[in-house]
Amino acid sequence: MYDAPSAEPLDEAELRRLEARYCSYGDTVHYMAEPKFFTGCDGSFMYDAEGREFLDLQMWYSAVNFGYRNPRLDAVAKAQLDRLPQVASQYLHREKVELAAVIAQDAERKFGHAGRVHFNVGGAQAVEDSLKVVRNASGGKSLMFAFEGGYHGRTLGASAITSSYRYRRRYGHFGDRAQFIEFPYHFRGPKGMSKEEYGEQCVAKFARLFETEYNGVLDTKTGQAEFAAFYVEPIQGTGGYVVPPPNFFKGLKKVLDQHGILMVVDEIQMGFYRTGKLWAIEHFDVQPDVLVFGKALTNGLNPLSGLWAREELINPTVFPPGSTHSTFNSNPMGTAVGLEVMRMTAEGDYETQVTAKGAYFLEGLRTLQKRWPQIGDVDGLGLALRAEICKADGFTPDKALLDEMAEEGMKADIEVGGKRYGLILDVGGYYKNVITFAPSLHISYAEIDLAIELLDALFKRCVRD
Asked: What is the per-residue pLDDT across 123-181, written as a single tens digit (0 to 9) for each?
């Protein structure tokens, strides 16, 4: 028999004691000595128990694209809660079917292929489902290509195609394996080479793998590649919001098509207008074979993810009922909100708005870069932006400086315009020295100005001569 939980909220000291004793540290917390407790949120801001205001520039790793407590999306969630909040996934409900149709019809218009949509509950789970799709389509091939700096999740299959060994070091491999290919990370690429030239070089190096059988990926006598698919993020997420040159993916897809290797596009962080288009891959003029999505589909209100795949890869004769399953996949709460997200973004000109706000934010970052040599690189596409934090030479990674800035931002004591604020920053990049900015797509221009002022204040506080 367990003790009934207290009806009264516990104070923070008691909560920290209980957390230290009973909570796993393995579920992605404790990047700081004492992770922050938050008690409220609204728009672009989070609030603690003292009512202190924190401007959030990461929005739950790009899950809350449309702002905290978005009135339109929250209302749909509440209405669904009162009507049909639960139904087993062996049955149907209207919201699932309509949402799948909207996404599939949009993909057919944009990519020129009929296809179907398959739901799950989280990004890594959707990646796992995609691995089943491509392994099934390739006759059981378990080898994949993926990028250095790529991130696709921390389940066993997803971590196998994520380039960081840290996520699989304790667990080994279970099936899928990846060969990691160089991504055109121009800031840290070859000197004296343009971004476009570097992209072309990376494609040429990849194509060379198929020149002879001794490069280990192709049986030149049969033309059969040992690899089923190439997993790509249009813009690297955890890798530091690295934006490739416009020509890169088109060249890569040409090589893949020549050798019968599928392109799986991971849009989990960059989808739903983060970059100014519904799917970030639209910027690069290629047609994916499989597209994986999640996060912002429900604005963080309910776990829901999914994939779109070409008809010949996923129709019921080749991918029958029960090929994958989760009790909560295509749940009515999530699909109702997802359907409203699609309505809302179709009605509003998010492409124009996000592009304009992103350009404004990027210009602010460039102004900071002129003031602070510790900002080695800034770049972005839409409201997916990056600032690489370095030593005073503008190149040597300075993780310690960024860690200090992130911790100082949590103190909520930065004064701007007579008010005190905190600042929530996300840390990413190959060297964990990149601020990856994923603000609300509804962020105001005044809030962007505030973000630049708060960042400037953090540099003044943390940079030492």
From this structure: 999 999 999 999 999 999 999 999 999 999 999 999 999 999 999 998 887 777 899 99
- Distance, in Å, from the CA atom of 405 to the CA atom of 424, rounded to the nearest integer, reads 10
Dist. CA 298–CA 388, nearest whole Å:
30
Q: How far apart are CA 268 and CA 419, in angstroms?
A: 35
User: Are 274 and 337 in a shared domain?
Assistant: yes
7 domain residue, yes or no: no
Instruction: Print the SS3 string covering 382-421.
Output: CCEEEEEEECCCCCCECHHHHHHHHHHHCCCCEEECCEEE
Confirm whether 396 is domain-assigned.
Answer: yes
Distance CA 166, CA 174 (A): 16
Range of the domain at 401: 12-62+349-462
405: exposed, middle or buried (C-beta count within 10 Å: 0-12, 13-18, 19+)?
buried
Q: What is the pTM of this model?
A: 0.97
In angstroms, the CA 162 to CA 127 distance is: 11
Which pLDDT value is given to residue 172?
82
Query: Do 223 and 368 have their domain in common?
Result: no
SS3 content of the chain, % helix, strand, coil (to 5): 40, 20, 45
Return the structure tokens found at 282: 């639209």
Q: What is the pLDDT of residues 428-447, one digit of tens each?
A: 999 999 999 999 999 999 99
Looking at 298, 327, 347, the residue that finishes a domain is 347
67 within a domain of the structure (yes/no): no
